[in-house]
Amino acid sequence: MKHLTMILAVLLLAGCAAYSSNGLKPGEARLEDVLRVMGQPAMRWQESDGALQLAYPRGQTGVHSYMAFIGADGGLQRIENVMERSAFARIQAGMNKEQVLRILGPSWPGWTVYFKARDELVWEWRYCDEWNEPARFDVLFDASTEKVRSTLSQTESQMGLCDQSCWCSR
Fold first, then answer.
1. Contact at 8 Å (CB) between 70 and 112?
2. Does the pLDDT value for residue 70 go beyond 90?
3. Which of 78, 98, 139, 169 is the most exposed place for a label (fewest CB within 10 A)?
4. In sequence order, what E strands does the chain have?
């Protein structure tokens, strides 16, 4: 049983390393390289000029979501972790769902909540804050208009999900 646990841990760490764009260099890597290393994206957007944007969320327990930007020539321009305050600051009241998805990528479906009394839909993402503590970023939509009402960010310890010994590993 010990050996099985060790093997699973090694495979999990290897998968995480590849998923984070390890070894992909802007200006050198091509779309095919991104797909080989990072896999199929959760979402993709085709620009009118032929460029692509690919979303790679890390899932329920992950604290990163990557956006890979591919030029019209098929070359990797850049890869960004969008689970950062600078990306969160771009989410503004009045934006629609598609605009939010283009900035942050999809949230974890299990954390999407609808509040009937407020007619409010909430999408949630997990990230590491500036103090290396797990946190959640929420976008609150008016469910009828599907426009952003507001955003909210809290650490998991504030939410009662994590004690003081809970820290992110970067």
1. no
2. yes
3. 169
4. 43-46, 52-57, 65-70, 76-81, 113-115, 120-128, 134-142, 147-155
CA distance 126 to 38: 20
Lay out the sheet containing 134-142: strands in order across: 113-115, 120-128, 134-142, 147-155
d(CA 26, CA 134): 29
Q: How many CB atoms lie within 10 A of CB 113?
A: 12
Any idea which residue has 């000029």 for tokens? 49
Single-letter amino acid code for the residue at 40: Q
Backbone angles phi and psi of 99, in degrees to 5: -65, -40
Residue 126: CB partners within 8 Å, gap ≥ 6? 60, 61, 62, 63, 83, 108, 134, 135, 136
149's CB contacts (< 8 A; 6+ apart) are 93, 120, 140, 141, 142
> Angle of helix 31-38 relative to helix 2-19, nearest 10 degrees?
160
Mean pLDDT of 67-89: 96
